[in-house]
Amino acid sequence: MIRLRMLPPVLLGLALGAGSTATGASAQQLDLDEVFRCSGETVSQDNCLAARQVLLNDCTTCHTFVPIVMQSFDENGWRGLLTRHVENGRVTQVPPEQIENLRLYLAENFNGDLPPPDLPPALLETWTSY
Ligand code: HEC
């Protein structure tokens, strides 16, 4: 839990990175609990937090987290995306059970039934950073 407190600057650094203007980062607070919500009944709070950790540690080196939370896939869609990422050798350090936990988490929270999280425009611009 302590680590989470360190995350927002890391995230903003990653997301806003080089070239961002002074308009955003310091004024905007990103509520991680709102972005990485835990909205359902299937995935426990602990598993939500575990999925969030994987997302932030292993899924934001090539692109920001924005395409992940703005995408809406069902369980199969997320399976396809994650399988493609693993088989392409993009994601190699995450054990299969963590990938499965992430898939369930994403399918429950980012599936088209819920509106996507409200992100500041500067972050949205990073959607297609890949
Ligand atoms: C080694 C680089 C790399 C890593 C690490 C990575 N990705 Fe990606 N990701 C890409 C690239 C390149 C694309 C664009 C091409 C594509 O869709 O496959 C992409 C696209 C995406 C998209 C958008 C797909 C769409 O159809 O719009 C999502 C969602 C996504 N990644 C999720 C993840 C998740 C979840 C993880 C962590 C498990 C992750 N990525 C880790 C390289 C990476």
Automatic annotation (TrEMBL):
Residues spanning the signal sequence: 1-27
GO molecular function: electron transfer activity; heme binding
Keyword set, alphabetical order: Signal
Superkingdom of the organism of origin: Bacteria
Gene3D superfamilies linked: Cytochrome c-like domain
Descriptive protein name: Cytochrome c domain-containing protein
